Amino acid sequence: MLSRVFLASRGRSVASRCYSNATRMIDLNWSLAAAGITFGERQSCVRNPKAVEVFAKDGAASGAWKWAEQGPNLEISAIPSEVKFQRLFDACVDHMRAQPSAFVSEVAVGSFPRSAVKTRVVTTDPVIAAWVSQVMERMPSRAPMDFAEGAAHILIAPNMTVSDPARMGLTTSHGFAASHGNKLVIGGQLGMLDLLDSIAGFALALCHPGTTLIPGICAYSSDNKLALVMGSNIPGLGEAEQYGFRHYVWSGTGVAKAWRGVIRRDLSNAESGQIADSSGNVVKTLTDPTRHPNIVAPGPELIVIVDESSEAPAKLFSLEDPNDARLFYLSSLKSSKLFLNAEQGLRASEEFLKLCLSGKPKMRALYGKGAGLAVTKLVGSQSSRSRATAMSENVKSELADRLRTIYPVAEFLS
């Protein structure tokens, strides 16, 4: 929602479709007035004067939301990440607290625009249910999928574009609920999603009273053993221990943190894969980080998707036993080349995820060109990504405190 209207790389046909759906969403007259976020119209886009603008009632710091007037090539780097996330976080918290409990509805939500992913969302809010349902009903090429019997919720990040969430182990939330007290975690690349992906993800975050929106965490598998984390310019990435999660987070900057432990490596260093203590002193070369003494309770395995190109991904980890890989690196090209391999990327990513879930070591053979597209959805140039404003430390700390107030860390670590 608080992002570019669409991915410029996808061309005018997708742009027109996105604007068309944006117009329909305006017609739905949906708002979160209590949270201070509303939808409005602006007569400033020549191609479609009914472009969408999202704004906060007290004004958006460092410039209003300008994406409607700039067309398909708008960059959102001028809007500080902390502003975007603060608005979303406040909206989620306020809305969850105000939700009625009598109304329950199942609606279908999908990822735009390439996949046929659909998910059940149980919501106690009739407005959200009706809005999401109408938005997704109007989306083209939406084939419903069969759900596993007894599925309660399907956990999916709004930017996932694999064609079948069952391949990712996301058909139920039972395993996740067992570890996290039935609290869904919906993640996504805030500020790097196209319009409908962001809105769908935002709706998901509002649909369940126990939902927390954590940026930089894309999805957990239903058995809580796989986490997808992407990018290096997302607020919260590399800081997951502040939110009480027990998993490894790796960022493109070469620094990654784990709960009560720090893993460090240098992208340019062939001897990478080192574990360091909290002071930065190297403890050992990375083999199986789940057995590291600093990590009291190992979290789910992690696929790391780095948004910086590497010509030698095989050198990033020096695993003594390739069958015992707890961390996987999925390389991606720079975005200028990435979109040339869109179809290859979609297929490779699906196969990669299936192999990861099956535990087969073949997954290492899928490093390479375009493999990250379906999961990363990297947009813009390398320079535009690097310009994204990092969330300040005090904002991170404040958000972490607020999350702990709502969902005590003990619940996540039990």
Form type: globular
| β-strand number | 15
SSE order? HEEHHEEHHEHEEEEEEEEEEHHHHHH
Helix content: 25-40%
Question: Biggest sheet: strands, sense, closure?
Answer: 5 strands, antiparallel
Rg, Å, rounded: 20 Å
Overall structural class, as computed from helix and strand content, comes to alpha+beta
Q: Biggest sheet: strands side by side, in what order?
A: 9-10-11-12-13
Beta-strand level of the residues, as a percent range? Answer: 5-15%
Protein name: Phosphoenolpyruvate carboxykinase (ATP)
GO molecular function: phosphoenolpyruvate carboxykinase activity; purine nucleotide binding
Organism: Compsopogon caeruleus
InterPro entries: PEP_carboxykinase_N (IPR008210)
Describe the structure.
This protein is an alpha+beta fold and 414 residues long. It has one domain. 29% of the residues lie in helices and 15% in strands. A 5-stranded antiparallel β-sheet has the order 9-10-11-12-13, with no helix packed on it. Strands 7-8-14-15 form a 4-stranded mixed β-sheet, with no helix packed on it. The chain has a two-stranded antiparallel sheet with strand order 1-2. A hairpin with a 5-residue loop joins strand 7 and strand 8. Helix 3 packs parallel to helix 6. The N terminus and C terminus are likely disordered.
